[in-house]
Write a structure and sequence with these properties.
Helices cover 39% and strands 14% of the residues. With 236 residues, it is an alpha/beta fold. The longest helix is centred in the middle third of the chain and has 27 residues, at 104-130.
Length: 236
């Protein structure tokens, strides 16, 4: 039975990845900050014996280390670094991330969650992944992190963290190569989630189905690349 560890598994993309992998017979290690409040996740746990839920705040590096120790010896086929924040409420516009109105507190939090946390997860779980059959790490990025595709201003905090995540993907591909690990970035599209809101144009079920298809077809030669959920290669 293949296994996947998913951060931010209590809602949105993470919850849908959990749901779809469970229906495929995978073992899912679902991580979220407050499991007691994750009603949909707990409902799935009642239905599937292959779902394990772990409390994890990804900005708590000690907690990441403790979880890695708790899961020592476990093989993780796919490490899905999904947890992330936008730093804004789309229903009220993208405030506090422009040249004239920047919240440095929000920017620091974005860096902690969107960049430092995935790096720490890989640092602590690389051996779990390397010992598996599939050896895959997915970094949940965004098309807003594209430098070549950035033709407008604003959203600087979020954009820079996703561009940084892409840089990590590229650099870590070389560093993880001896372990046989394939790492790649994913642009999930603008999805109808709590973060994306109903203004978005992509259904979360459709995006996740596409992402999982890309994961199933990824090759070691693709390591260090960036794809959208349709499997199309994207430009940095």
């Amino acid at each position: 039975m293949p296994s996947v560890l998913i951060t931010g598994a209590n809602r949105g993309l993470g919850l849908e990845h959990t749901r779809q992998y469970l229906t495929k017979g995978w073992e899912v290690l679902a991580c979220c900050r407050t499991p007691s409040q994750a009603e949909e996740l707990n409902t799935l746990a009642d239905e599937y014996m292959s779902l394990e839920i772990y409390e994890l705040d990804v900005i708590d590096h000690d907690a990441i280390e403790q979880l890695a120790t708790l899961l020592a010896g476990r093989k993780i086929d796919v490490l899905l670094n999904n947890a992330g924040i936008l730093g804004a409420d789309l229903t009220q516009g993208l405030q506090h991330q422009t040249l004239s109105d920047m919240s440095y507190e929000i920017w620091r939090e974005l860096l902690e969650v969107n960049v430092l946390a995935p790096f720490k997860m890989i640092s602590e779980f690389q051996q779990h992944v390397a010992s598996s059959d599939m050896k895959i790490i997915l970094m949940m990025s965004s098309s807003l992190g594209s430098i070549s595709g950035n033709t407008v201003g604003g959203v600087h905090g979020y954009r820079t963290t996703k561009a940084s995540l892409n840089m990590l993907t590229k650099g870590l591909a070389a560093e993880l190569e001896p372990s046989g690990i394939t790492i790649f970035s994913m642009a999930p599209g603008w999805c109808k989630t709590d973060m994306g809101t109903d203004l978005a144009d992509v259904e979360v079920t459709h995006s996740v189905a596409g992402q999982q298809r890309v994961i199933s077809e990824i090759q070691f030669s693709d390591s260090g690349s960036w794809f959208d959920y349709n499997g199309d290669l994207l430009s940095w």
